[in-house]
Specification:
With 179 residues, the chain is an alpha+beta fold. It is 17% helix and 22% strand. The chain has 2 helices and 8 strands, in the order H-E-E-E-H-E-E-E-E-E. The chain is globular, with a radius of gyration of 24 Å.
């Protein structure tokens, strides 16, 4: 009888350990972070306000934006705004084509954020697929406006041909819910 009890207890321990391992494996999720690798910034052509232009895009081809009310490394976009306009984060200097401005990674409240020509870069959650620029010329927090990022950032809000400025009809003047 004593030998049977030991065998029963041994089986219960084995089953309990096996169940715990299965449970622990199901809970384990590998940790992935955009911040662990350099982020690639590229250029693409887009039509804004009926004119072709060159814009900055992230590695998957999604348009990048900047906010005019950001000041240096201080983002005016936090909370719900950062959910709609996720900051472009990278743990190492980003790579990209030869551009007239400088691509850097700066420390912000969001983490290590990519900056181009002194402007913090963001994605727009309303762009469902690469090539869309639905976030261009939208109202932003702090009285700022969102514009698609271009290689010539100083021209981006002016509507100059090739600059990415002007209204593409996707965002609309004054739309965007304040961010």
């Amino acid at each position: 009888m004593f030998g049977g009890d030991i065998a029963m207890v041994s089986r219960r321990i084995v089953v309990s350990v096996a169940a715990a391992l299965v449970f622990a494996t199901a809970l384990w999720v590998p940790e992935f972070s955009v911040q662990s690798a350099p982020f690639t910034v590229s250029i693409a052509t887009a039509t804004i306000a009926g004119r072709p232009g060159v814009i900055l895009v992230e590695a998957n081809g999604f348009a990048l934006y900047y906010l005019t009310s950001d000041r240096g490394t201080v983002s005016a976009c936090g909370g719900a705004c950062a959910g709609t306009w996720p900051p472009l984060l990278s743990g190492a200097p980003p790579t990209g084509p030869s551009l007239p401005g400088r691509l850097t990674v700066v420390s912000t409240a969001h983490g290590s954020q990519v900056s181009y020509g002194g402007h913090l870069l963001y994605r727009y959650a309303g762009d469902a697929q690469p090539g869309q620029i639905n976030g261009h010329d939208r109202a932003g927090p702090g009285g700022g406006r969102w514009y698609v990022a271009t290689p010539r950032m100083s021209d981006a809000a002016s509507g100059a041909p090739g600059s990415g400025g002007g209204n593409d009809g996707g965002g609309g003047q004054g739309s965007g819910g304040g961010y």
